[in-house]
Amino acid sequence: LAKTTQPISMDSYEGQEVNITCSHNNIATNDYITWYQQFPSQGPRFIIQGYKTKVTNEVASLFIPADRKSSTLSLPRVSLSDTAVYYCLVGGGDNFNKFYFGSGTKLNVKP
Amino acid sequence: DAGVIQSPRHEVTEMGQEVTLRCKPISGHDYLFWYRQTMMRGLELLIYFNNNVPIDDSGMPEDRFSAKMPNASFSTLKIQPSEPRDSAVYFCASSQNRGNTIYFGEGSWLTVV
């Protein structure tokens, strides 16, 4: 099963770019890579999803190397409101049971 | 779009009582998921449905837990009897198809005393 490994926490300052890397060595051919954001007292919220190479939307960019064994979520110019837990998930191709959330990365943005 | 709607948002109940959590998925979504979140175990997938049919319930902790989806717009997660260790946030989520994004509700905060 394609479980993920992320840093437990990261600190950053407002205006900086933040890169959170996730390892998923056992990713399957049909698995997508999806990142979610969770604020306290709320459900996780979709940020970005990719399969390979690079994906960019209005919120973030997702970089995926050719071997797909890792991925990096890039948040440009973070603000205090980006303080949250960020989860990297792989799965969804064949079996949603593979959507393991893991422990996520607690991003703390400081003024 | 109203998003995934869960009720109740908060519930405090006594040990041994039956608890029923409710969920209305996003219209048109074929997949419905029930997750549980605790500090100790993080987010756990309990069960998911496809077209109202339970596909995988291997995450359901024990027989005290049951989930149903009588139609495409409604699902319940029932705990009977409830125990203090069931205290958690229970999230319902839905998705349009495999590989697509999962949309979460705001959660039902359950406290069993």
Summarize, please.
The complex is a heterodimer of chains A (111) and B (113). By secondary structure, chain A is mostly beta strands. Chain A has strands at residues 9-13, 18-23, 32-38, 45-50, 53-56, 61-64, 70-75, 84-91, 105-110.
Description:
The complex is a heterodimer of chains A (111) and B (113). With 111 residues, chain A is mainly beta. Chain A is built from no helices and nine strands. Chain A has strands spanning 9-13, 18-23, 32-38, 45-50, 53-56, 61-64, 70-75, 84-91, 105-110. In chain A, the strands form two sheets. Chain A has a five-stranded mixed sheet, with no helix packed on it. In chain A, strands 2-7-6-5 form a four-stranded antiparallel sheet, with no helix packed on it. Chain A starts with 8 loop residues before the first strand and ends with a strand. The mean pLDDT of chain A is 89. In chain B, strands 2, 4, 5, 6, 9, 10 and 11 form a seven-stranded mixed sheet that branches. Chain B has 113 residues and is an all-beta fold. Chain B is built from no helices and eleven strands. Chain B is globular. The A-B interface holds A 30, 32, 34, 41-46, 49, 87, 92-97, 99-104 and B 4, 31, 33, 35, 42-43, 45, 48, 55-56, 58-59, 91, 93, 95, 98-107.
